[in-house]
Every structure is written in structure tokens, then in C-alpha cells.
Amino acid sequence: MHAKAPPSDRRLRSRAWFDNPDNIDMTALYLERYLNFGLSQEELQSGRPIIGIAQTGSDLSPCNRHHLELAKRVREGIREAGGIVIEFPVHPIQETGKRPTAGLDRNLAYLGLVEVLYGYPLDGVVLTIGCDKTTPACLMAAATVNIPAIALSVGPMLNGWFRGERTGSGTIVWKARELLAKGEIDHAGFVKLVASSAPSTGFCNTMGTATTMNSLAEALGMQLPGSAAIPAPYRDRQEMAYRTGLRIVGMVHEDMKPSDILTRDAFLNAIRVNSAIGGSTNAPIHLNALARHVGVELSLDDWQEFGEDIPLLVNLQPAGEYLGEDYYHAGGVPAVVAELMKQGLIAEDAPTVNGRSIGENCRAATIQDEAVIRPFDRPLKERAGFRVLRGNLFNSAIMKLSVISADFRARYLSNPEDPDAFEGRAVVFDGPEDYHARIDDPALAIDATTILFMRGAGPVGYPGAAEVVNMRAPDYLIRAGVHELPCIGDGRQSGTSGSPSILNASPEAAVGGGLALLHTGDRVRIDLRRGTADMLVPDDELAQRRRTLDAEGGYLYPPSQTPWQELQRSVVGQLEAGAVLEPAVKFQRIAQT
Ligand code: FES
Ligand code: MG
To answer: Looking at ligand 1, which atom is closest to the CA of residue 94?
Structure first.
């Protein structure tokens, strides 16, 4: 792999720009401008692969910013293997910094990257992934265009520490908020405690959406084995960047494209790995979106069928105790895959970017620390996947079973006659602003049996779908020892939150889903075993509410603030189907057209 790859027999697509005998005028025009920063005509016309580095790092995207450094090693790898490098920016996506929500920008970055990969002289691309939405945005674009592509994780931050305890990104906010509510820390202490979770460059060190999606990019076969978990500042990360650069050139020569790797088997492997790692509830949204762009059948039912019974093996916050550095030292994704392989739960023949199958890559991997990655027969929890719920509230919503705490089980799932069901009185919020304004209002009479609802937070109601379904209990309940209430909504939930929520409800209230008919005070019944979620309201009453809603012009949501919000709202689908730009789905494998 280290030797310079032989020149390809195939005529690479970049030659349509730089070496087109049928149109020497345009060839000259293309050449002259790419010469202007020092590339030579000889290089551009050599027939060597031109490799893009899709750069997601910038000052606006701190989680991925280390890719600016890593790209230097990627370049060295590409050069050494005989390729020519063209690095370019991807629209920034910063999970915590983008208002109103980073979810809005996944499809925008996707759209931009599709245009770049299709419209410029690129034979292959290195996708620099990391922060939550950067991974799906890059993979989705590579799938649509279908030129050889390899992903490189930026890696998690080092572990955070505070007074001798690990503090994990995102997760610490929920804890710190409770300490603040109880008066145990002041506001300065609150910020200090939260910031302790981010001691270095890299993405969130918890099993949030970033670690989830980077792990799944590896499980799908789209990055080199072992790449997902190496912490950003480690030297091994630099080496991985170099090897990734080397490998993409070989992939171009072999014409190994995303459609060769992203098979249904690859997705089913990823679903199982997602359960074993305790992956984020954003994973089904992003993987279902990716599957649609590559043309693979995948539905929420697959998540339940293939993922629900897989036990939780990885002991990372928020479901467990440890953080990213520990995950790496314990063996990372290969160790998890190997553990599942022993149970026959991995399609071992699924190809990966290094030209070997996932089985070949992971067979020899072993768990290095059983406190962090548990063996299959001694899991952290049984059944760590998602349960799909359906009823008159929505066509589908999911619940992550692994976050149901003993406290929650004792309070809500304790009826021996009916151990998997609970009922409660609904308190309904219309969007995050409404929730923030009213959650502590005693007039809502929220008590330990209330079920909190968040609507108007889906892809249309709150462009991009807000991560707001995980709502805290009112301060007066927290002080009384009630830390979590069940939450249900048509928005998303941060992967770093451990709340027992039912989320991603589709269709959302804004497009007329059942949630739009719910009133505060209605009784609601959730049955986890049967997979049902219903408001206990008679059908004729619901029909009357539907007529009233229609007469009022439907569920009201705030106007768009930007042109993109307006555009996306007009074409975006629901969370259960990946919240993709629906008109984009028919464009598949377009580099071949
Ligand atoms: Fe970017 Fe968590 S906020 S990875
Ligand atoms: Mg998030």
C-alpha cells in the first residue's frame, strides 16, 4: 500500500477537464486557472488521480477544526501514493453553535458538497468527518455522486475531568443544570463545570451523536478500521490521516465507490453496532437518509428488528461511565464488531474501504478493557436498541431502551399486571421557547406522573428539527427528588442526553400529525411491549379537533428566518424517512451520468 500505485488504465473523470482533445479551448481554460497556485501542467495532465479533501474544519467548527492539521498528513499520504490534492471547504456545521439548530445545515452542506463533487475535476475524495451532522452530510453527498470516497474521523476530545471525576461533553450540562437548580453551584461554577468536559481539540467525548456517527461510518466500512475512536490529539490520529490519504488513491485505481460499500448488509451491521455502543437517537435519521441517497431499502422497522435485542456493550456516558479515550484504549469499533461477530451478528463479507471485508478487518480484534467494552455475555444492559412506537399520536416514534433508569422503571413501569406500560396526564409545549417560558410555572400542575410533550419541533415546524424533546422537570420537582419525566415529541434529542424520551415522532404536528390534536390535560398511554402510544381521547372527539384545526388553517408554527429555512421547509421529509430533501433522492450515482 505504501508503494506508488500504478497509473490507472481507466480514463479518470478529471481528464474531462484537464486533458480533453475534443475541446482544447476549454482544457486550456481549466488548466490555466488550476495552474495559478503552483500546480504544473505536467501534473494536471499526468492522468494521476485528483483527490479532493472535503474540509469541514474551520474556526466556526471547533469540533472539526483539527482537520486543518490532519489534512497536512492526508496530503502527504495522497502525494506519496501518486495522487494530486485539491482541498476545499464544506459548509460549516457546528452542532452547538448554529442557530436555530445545526440540523438545518445537514442538508445544506449535503447539497453544497454534491455540487462540488459533481462539478469539479475530482476523481476521489477524503471526507473529513467529526461533529454530529458533518458525518452524515459528507457520506450522503458522496453516496449521491458516487465517486470513490473515504472518511476520516477527527477523533474525540480527551477525557474531561472535574474533581477527580470524568466529565463528558453535553452530558455534564444536564448534571450541572441540576446542581444549579439545587443551589449547589453558582453560575460561574456552572460554566466552569460544563467547560471542564472539553479539554482539547476534537468532537464530543461522550457517546453522543458524534461518536455514534463516526463509529457507524467505520462499521459501514467507509473509514479505515480503528479510525473512529482515536482521540484527536493522539499521534495515532496523525498516522491514520496519512494512511487514509494513501488509501484513497488506491480506491480510485480500483474504482471502489460508495455504492460498492454501502450495501444493505453494511447498514444492518451498523444498526447492530449502534445498539452495542448505545448510539444516539439521531443515528436512525442519518442512516435512513444515507440509505435513501444510495438507494438501499432501510426503514425504522429494520432498526427494531435487527437492533433492538442487541445488548449494550460500550460503557460510555450518557448510558455508562467512561469517555472517548477509554473507548479507544478498550479497542474501539473493531473490538465491538469482533464481539458481535462471535455471535454471528455481523455480515462478515461486507466490503470496506481498505479492500478487505469487515470480517477480515475485525476478526483478530480483542477487548482490551472489559470495564469499558463488555463481553457479549456480560453486557451493561440487555436490549439496547430502539423500540418503535405507533398510535394515534404519530405513525412512528422511537425510544432508546437503554436509557430507562431504575428510578424511571420503579416510578413508571412498576405495575406487575402491566409492567411495560404507563399512563399520565399530558402537558403540551409548542416549541422550545414555550417550554423554556413555562416549565417552572406552577399553574401547569406538573407532578411526578405527568408526561411532557414537545411539538412544533420537527423538520418543518422548527426547520431542521430541534434537539429539544429531552425536557427537564420543573425546578420544584427536581428539588423534591424527581429528576426525570417521560418526554414525547416531534423533535430530536441530543445524543448526549440520557432522558427517557420518545422522539422523532412522524409525521410532526406542523404537517398535521396526531400530536397537533393533543391538549394539555389529556390522558396518554404508552405501552412499550406492544409498541403503542395513544392519547386516550375518543375518536369522535379527535375528529372534531381535526375539523377545528383544519378550519384554523392547520398547526401554526413560526415563520422562516432565512431563505434556506423557507426552501428546506418546502421540500424536506419527515424524521422517520431521514428528513432528506425529497426531490434530491432520485439523483443517484450521478458521477456516472
Ligand atoms: Fe460538535 Fe459534539 S458539538 S461533536
Ligand atoms: Mg446533537
So the answer is: 1
Residues within 5 A (CB) of ion ligand 2: 95, 132, 209, 494
ipTM over 0.90: yes
Ligand 1 site, CB within 6 A: 63, 95-96, 131-132, 169, 203-204, 208, 210
How would you classify residue 114: left for phi > 0, otherwise alpha for psi between -120 and 50, otherwise beta? alpha
Domain range for 482 is 388-552
Q: Report the chain's C-alpha Rg in angstroms.
A: 24
318 prior amide bond cis, ω within 30: yes
For atom 2 of ligand 1, the residue with the nearest CA is 204
Count of helix runs (H) and strand runs (E) in the chain: 22, 14
Residue ranges of the chain whose pLDDT lies below 70: 1-8, 495-499, 593
What is the residue with the minimal CA distance to atom 3 of ligand 1?
Answer: 95
CA distance 362 to 366: 9
**Residue 230 belongs to a domain with what CATH number?**
3.40.50.2300
Q: Are residues 97 and 167 in the same domain?
A: no
If asked whether residues 150 and 172 sit together in one domain, one would say: no
What pLDDT, on a 0 to 100 scale, did the predictor assign at position 4?
A: 46
Q: Specify the 3-state DSSP secondary structure of 492.
A: strand
- Ligand 1 atom nearest the C-alpha of 61 is 1
Q: How far is CA 214 from CA 130, 140, 205, 347, in A?
A: 7, 14, 12, 19
CA of 207 to the centre of ligand 2 (A): 11
Total domain count, the chain: 3
- Among the listed residues 527, 480, 495, the one whose alpha carbon sits nearest the alpha carbon of residue 503: 495
For residue 95, the ligand 1 atom closest to its alpha carbon is: 3
Q: How far is the CA of 542 from the centre of ligand 2 (A)?
A: 34
Task: Annotate 322-341 with b (16+ C-beta within 10 A) or e (fewer).
Answer: bbbbbbbebbbbbbbbbbbb
443 CB-contact burial (10 Å; exposed 0-12 / middle 13-18 / buried 19+)? exposed
Residues 261 and 402 in one domain: no
- Ligand at shortest distance from the CA of 97: 1
352 CA → ligand 1 middle, Å? 26
Ligand 2 centre to CA of 101 (Å) is 9
- Exposed (0-12), middle (13-18) or buried (19+): which is 388, by Cβ within 10 Å? buried
Ligand nearest the Cα of residue 211 is 1
Per-residue model confidence as pLDDT tens digits over 333-364: 999 999 999 999 999 999 999 999 999 999 99
- The three-class DSSP label of residue 294 is helix
Strand partners, 501: 487
**Residue 208 sits in the same domain as residue 344:** yes
